């Protein structure tokens, strides 16, 4: 009898290595036991030496590897043995996976499907709660997955919430995002998860406002949002009374009949006051605080104007403020700003000597529950805000403008400008100022692959080093 010990519940690489060695050694599935390191061993179980595979190889369909990677995340304690039995049988029948009625094939497929569904539920029903405020805030969620899917689901949250630090706590393992990488730590008890935060009442009011009793289908709703998830949802306390009142509300809506639509009342906006005299940064900042050139000001917390010395030789232009910048009123103070600071330091540029601004001065976003998701500014919004960039440029008179991202490049050059085609070399602007094009730091945060992120970060630093070299050469020439 062969006793295989895997490192943890999701040790696919360990299972794959052991299964290959067992199959090459012609060890039957009935002669193998599988368990996790740390679990209680069988009584009198002898310590088994590592199994060294004999020379040789064999092939199985790539579809089996994909299926096994997913099924091994299931909580079925027999999954390791089941997968090895299926592997053993595939050596004799390469087309076994095409027989959907085969008991082993059907069970593994059902396990993989359950894991994918659990991953979908985690994506849909994780609710973050804010701990702390503004600069020190961290977003924490509690979730109880059916299967071992935390590491599988974490990259989705890293992409979707790239500009906020978060933690997802579960009884198995916990996932954390610091703006740069996902890390995994041991699981915790639910008592360590935060309770209601200051935004939860707002979320409940929003949920109640969008609830439509005329379109309610209780069975369909419960199929998509099973009751076991309700205890972790802030809107859960409203679901039962809203369902109970749906029939009364529907009847009332039918009895009342249709109403005439209200005519929109256009409210005059206060005019933006433009002060006379020579522009300086403080004057521009005060004037921009009342900007009404496009509708973005209506939902943003405040105007986020540029920051830095008026004698700066480099002007860095980003795309638009993010959530953290909107709350703080300063550019590049969130995760993208932290990455920019690190890259500037590696490139030999002191941020305190640089003027940093954005092409668009108000945060454009779409609400998703309690989270505000970044939205790309459109061309009319970029054009409306370009006056501020032009006046900042005239006030600063930098030697070099660095456009970070497509929105910034469109503002700096006055037209859509491809990044990869134009980065890495200086471009002369109409007024004689030189410009460089590179990516925005938030692009680096959104890259899910660690190797790609490291490579693109090095390219970003190299672009900033080009900027530093240009200034040094300019200083020597002067």
Describe this entry's structure for a reader.
Helix 1 (12-24) links the parallel strand 1 and strand 2. Strands 3-4-5-6-7 form a five-stranded mixed beta sheet, covered by helices on one side. Strands 9-8-12-14-13 form a five-stranded mixed beta sheet, with helices on both faces. The protein has a two-stranded parallel ribbon with strand order 1-2. The chain has helices spanning 12-24, 62-71, 79-92, 103-125, 150-160, 200-210, 218-224, 236-256, 281-288, 323-328, 335-346, 379-396, 406-413, 419-422, 441-446, 450-477; strands at residues 2-6, 32-36, 129-131, 138-142, 166-169, 173-177, 182-186, 314-318, 355-358, 365-368, 371-374, 400-404, 427-428, 434-438. It folds into four domains: 2-120, no CATH class; 126-192, no CATH class; 200-253, no CATH class; 281-477, Uracil-DNA glycosylase-like domain (Uracil-DNA Glycosylase, subunit E), CATH 3.40.470.10. With 478 residues, it is an alpha/beta fold. The chain is globular.
């Amino acid at each position: 009898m062969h006793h295989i010990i895997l490192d943890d519940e999701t040790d696919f690489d360990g299972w794959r290595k052991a299964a290959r060695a067992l199959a090459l050694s012609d060890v039957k599935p009935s002669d193998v036991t599988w368990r996790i390191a740390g679990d209680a061993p069988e009584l009198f179980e002898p310590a088994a030496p590592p199994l060294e595979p004999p020379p040789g190889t064999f092939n199985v369909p790539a579809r089996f590897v994909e299926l096994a990677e997913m099924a091994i995340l299931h909580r079925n304690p027999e999954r390791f043995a089941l997968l090895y039995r299926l592997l053993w049988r595939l050596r004799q029948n390469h087309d076994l996976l095409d027989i959907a009625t085969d008991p082993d094939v059907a069970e593994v497929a059902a396990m993989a499907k359950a894991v994918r569904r659990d991953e979908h539920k985690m994506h849909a029903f994780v609710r973050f709660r804010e701990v702390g405020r503004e600069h020190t805030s961290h977003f924490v969620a509690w979730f109880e997955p059916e299967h071992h899917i935390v590491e599988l689901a974490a990259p989705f949250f890293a992409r979707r919430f790239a500009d906020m630090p978060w933690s997802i706590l579960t009884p198995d393992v916990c996932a954390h995002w610091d703006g740069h990488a996902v890390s995994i730590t041991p699981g915790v008890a639910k008592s360590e998860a935060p309770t209601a935060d200051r935004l939860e009442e707002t979320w409940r009011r929003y949920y109640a406002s969008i609830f439509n009793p005329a379109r309610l289908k209780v069975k369909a709703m419960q199929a998509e949002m099973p009751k076991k998830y309700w205890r972790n949802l802030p809107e859960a306390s409203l679901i039962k009374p809203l369902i109970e009142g749906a029939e009364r509300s529907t009847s009332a809506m039918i009895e009342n009949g249709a109403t005439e639509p209200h005519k929109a009342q256009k409210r005059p906006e206060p005019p933006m006051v433009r002060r006379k005299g020579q522009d300086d940064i403080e004057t521009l900042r005060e004037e921009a605080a009342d900007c009404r050139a496009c509708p973005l000001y209506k939902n943003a917390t405040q105007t986020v104007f540029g920051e830095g010395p008026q004698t700066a030789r480099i002007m860095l232009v980003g795309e638009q403020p993010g959530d953290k910048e909107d709350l703080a009123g300063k550019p590049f103070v969130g995760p993208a700003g932290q990455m920019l600071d690190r890259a500037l330091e590696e490139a030999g540029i002191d941020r305190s000597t640089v003027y940093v601004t954005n092409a668009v001065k108000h945060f454009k976003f779409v609400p998703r529950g309690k989270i505000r998701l970044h939205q790309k500014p459109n061309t009319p919004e970029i054009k409306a805000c370009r006056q501020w960039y032009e006046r900042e440029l005239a006030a600063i008179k930098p030697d070099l403008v660095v456009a970070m991202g497509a929105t910034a490049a469109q503002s700096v050059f006055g037209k859509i400008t491809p990044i990869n085609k134009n980065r890495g070399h200086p471009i002369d602007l109409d007024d004689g100022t030189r410009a460089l094009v590179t990516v925005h730091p938030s692009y680096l945060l959104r890259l899910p692959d660690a190797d790609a992120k490291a490579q693109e970060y090095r390219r970003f630093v190299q672009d900033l080093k080009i900027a530093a070299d240009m200034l040094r050469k300019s200083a020597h020439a002067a």
